[in-house]
């Protein structure tokens, strides 16, 4: 009989073995050539979609004596019978549907026999054989024993055991006992499952050909959890990994400087483990997080802002590998060390947004004023700060570029009386464009370096009894108390006549002196003129003082003459005071005049009032007669256009001022009709102008009637003038209303 393993795509076919059943010469199969469908059926591949009932193969063998042979197929106990063979022809047919997902390999024993050999082959007991060998089994250990007995019960022959197939030198079998032993350590085994074909042969010295039988022993190398996850570098196992990188890498960037591999040599669930980082959280992330057997470890950036050189120069954390589903929970760790390199990512910052400094005005040029400080958190050259100064008030100052000390210029002269406040800007730069600004306020402190000064060394004053006189000294210092002046009388004769206000400098008579008689009783000086020595002293430290002689004339001779006389007398020693008063009065009247003129101008402009215009008054004609010129009108030549030089205006139009711009003609004004002349005076026909016009006669009287007409014209003109002026005034009044 022959054993064969049959595979279909991807079912693997095993070798086919022959067991001889004939005492002399056993039948055998022909060799199975490639792509041949008859022979010993070895290495047969069958597609899983092959229909049931299909012809798969034809077994082909022969017997050396020429006896007829028969074929049979033997399956392992409990296995499904997928094939059937016709014994005489050897035709193999598929009888069960194939499913590679359920069973990828089918093992079957192919047998050939003739009818001459009557010896029964050995029989294995306890088949099928499945053996588990733990990976910690020591070499030389017995892993399993097979047992076979002679099929002929009357006179059994001894059995000889051999490994016919499937051994790569890892196992051995005892030829007499059938004990299978391990020859090498399990970690050197090349496969997890070994299928050893064990052949049991009868030992009969009377025959040349031995009768044998085979059985399959499946050995499963069972893994035990005896390996920890191990980290490997480029040169083998490694427990520490280091790299250098710049701060603030991009989020998601891979740390390519770390080349880490992790491996667990166990099998199956024992080789599954988890990876995680132990240390600063949320900064880096490891992938993958679950590994089976072996994987390349990748660490990526998760929080770029946290990778800051100014906060951490070195990151230390551990890479931890822990088995996932084992009772032992074996684990391993590797130290990860990341050295950070600085970048210019910080701006120099002043310790304050503004600085306030004070310096005495008598400080020499080049004196220090204040020291400012700016800090840059970056390292090396990026952390070096350069200072500069600029601004409108920076002319008198300079700053040291590295120390930040602000000095006055060597040539600078400070004077609080000229300028006591300065402000300017300072700049801190790191050399690559990153900078910040601050403002500096400098106050020049006033020093008491000025004496109080009177306008003159000798002051002339006139005092009216009951009124004070005032002396004043100015101190040019800029600040109090250096410019605050106190007054005192240093010398007076007699000493009990005058008092002085220490703050204002007002000099008054003693309260009991009410008249000149009292003064005459005090002193023999009848001129009523005294000289006082007045001191003006500032409150600075040290204090400075100045004295002046004050000559005072005391009088009461303006009493009862009015306030103006008193004022002029008091202004005797100060003529500018009187001049200022006069100038003020004049300015007041000028302003008042301008104001009144402006009001009148705008009022006239608003009403658009005009003066009298020329007007022609005609007497109602009765007959044509000659007229003569009036003797009191200027003589003028006749003109055909004389009458057109006058304007007759309607009463409903406004006047227009004749003094307005000459380029604009006056608006016409309609005046009322002239009054009717008496019937006795309507003889001549003439034109009568107003006082601003001229008379143009249309007819001429004879020389004899000129005197008589002259008297009439004079009376008529006077009456007409009165009526005309009255009417014009009434019209003007209505316009203003």
From TrEMBL:
Compositional bias annotation for Basic residues: 618-641
The UniProt record lists the keyword Calcium: yes
Keywords assigned by UniProt, alphabetized: Calcium, Cell adhesion, Membrane, Receptor, Repeat, Signal, Transmembrane, Transmembrane helix
PANTHER family, per database record: CADHERIN RELATED FAMILY MEMBER 1, CADHERIN-23
Localization, UniProt: Membrane
UniProt KW Membrane keyword: yes
GO biological processes: cell migration; homophilic cell adhesion via plasma membrane adhesion molecules
SMART domains the UniProt entry points to: CA (SM00112)
Annotated membrane topology: Single-pass membrane protein
UniProt name for this protein: Cadherin-related family member 1
GO cellular component, one term: catenin complex
Regions that span the bilayer: 578-602
MF GO annotations: beta-catenin binding; cadherin binding; calcium ion binding
Alphabetical list of SUPFAM superfamilies matching this protein: Cadherin-like (SSF49313)
Signal sequence annotation: 1-23
Main location group: membrane
Domain Cadherin as annotated: residue spans: 38-115, 125-231, 237-350, 351-454, 456-567
Residue span of region Disordered: 618-644
Gene3D superfamilies, alphabetized: Cadherins
Pfam family, one: Cadherin
